């Protein structure tokens, strides 16, 4: 299997991406992939990328700025605007350097990046979109956040926002055993750590400002504009995203398919659910040919 590591220029910084397959081949479509909140591509995305490559697709898996080997002004910044810029930068790079039109691109997202691919598809057309347990409505997700932590977490987030103009940050853990973290579902600590390979030093901290801004990120409000064929996979027992919000968003997409699994937010990366997820992806991708 061909694997190439590249760095995509993005202003003063670089987005690091892994390319799977033969990018000199003009005919096959490319799947663009990035991880969710606080995630890096080394945490579970490789098996999916290899699966799609075996199906005959080219795959580009990248880390948002500030994560992995991608450089950024603020380490591990989770911000929907800057991450949408990252996606658009990678899309433009595919167009300019490999002459791949958006009509040959399939966007793949999980959790927070699942919200990104839905947002991008509301703005322009792609060959297809796959959104796995996507962030669809920040306000709905806040209803699942433990009420006892909401005020102190907001206070830390406001501290971080106050420090931002001075180039400083106040961080919070992505997950924590006591659940005082950005992702505070009961299964989040064990679930997130299950994605991290042995001997990988994952940085469990991000700027806390995301707590104060995530409620304003609501891809569901633009889902009706999506024209591209779209597959949304929902997790019935999702501790972060109310399944009712996921179902509601899927119903808004004219050319959409929806499949629901009786699992939690992190289970699509593990047996027995991963094979079911991949099977649904394969069936959907076959409809795009």
TrEMBL record:
Q: Which organism is it from?
A: Acinetobacter lanii
Database matches in PANTHER family: DIENELACTONE HYDROLASE DOMAIN-CONTAINING PROTEIN-RELATED, POLYKETIDE TRANSFERASE AF380
MF term (GO), any:
carboxylic ester hydrolase activity
**Domain called Serine aminopeptidase S33: residue spans:** 26-140
Keywords for this protein = Hydrolase
Into which family does the record put it?
Answer: Belongs to the AB hydrolase superfamily. FUS2 hydrolase family.
Q: By what name is this protein known?
A: Alpha/beta hydrolase
Classify the source by domain of life: Bacteria
KW Cell membrane (keyword) present: no
Which Gene3D superfamilies does the entry link to?
A: alpha/beta hydrolase (3.40.50.1820)
Question: Which InterPro entries would you find in this protein's record?
Answer: AB_hydrolase_1, AB_hydrolase_fold, FrsA_esterase, Hydrolase_4
* Pfam families per record: Hydrolase_4
């Amino acid at each position: 299997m061909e694997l190439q590591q590249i760095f995509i220029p993005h202003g003063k910084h670089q987005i690091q991406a892994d390319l799977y397959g033969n990018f000199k081949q003009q005919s096959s479509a490319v799947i663009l992939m990035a991880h969710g909140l606080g995630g890096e591509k080394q945490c579970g995305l490789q098996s999916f990328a290899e699966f799609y490559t075996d199906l005959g697709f080219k795959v580009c898996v990248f880390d948002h700025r500030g994560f992995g080997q991608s450089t950024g002004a603020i380490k591990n910044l989770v911000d929907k605007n800057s991450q949408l810029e990252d996606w658009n930068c990678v899309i433009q790079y595919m167009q300019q350097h490999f002459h791949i039109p958006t009509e040959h691109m399939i966007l793949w997202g999980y959790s927070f990046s699942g919200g990104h691919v839905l947002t991008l598809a509301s703005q322009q057309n792609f060959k297809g979109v796959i959104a796995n347990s996507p962030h669809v409505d920040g306000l709905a997700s806040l209803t699942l956040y433990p009420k006892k932590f909401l005020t102190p977490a907001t206070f830390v987030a406001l501290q971080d926002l106050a420090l931002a103009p001075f180039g400083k940050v106040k961080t919070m853990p992505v997950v924590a055993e006591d659940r005082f973290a950005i992702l505070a579902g009961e299964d989040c600590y064990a679930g997130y750590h299950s994605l991290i390979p042995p001997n990988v030093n994952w940085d469990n901290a991000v700027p806390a400002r995301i707590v104060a801004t995530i409620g304003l990120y609501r891809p569901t409000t633009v889902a009706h504009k999506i024209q591209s064929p779209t597959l949304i996979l929902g997790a019935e027992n999702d501790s972060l995203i109310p399944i009712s919000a996921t179902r509601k968003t899927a119903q808004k997409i004219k050319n959409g398919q929806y499949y629901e699994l009786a699992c939690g937010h992190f289970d699509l990366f593990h047996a027995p659910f991963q094979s079911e997820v991949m099977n649904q992806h394969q069936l959907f991708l076959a409809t795009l040919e």
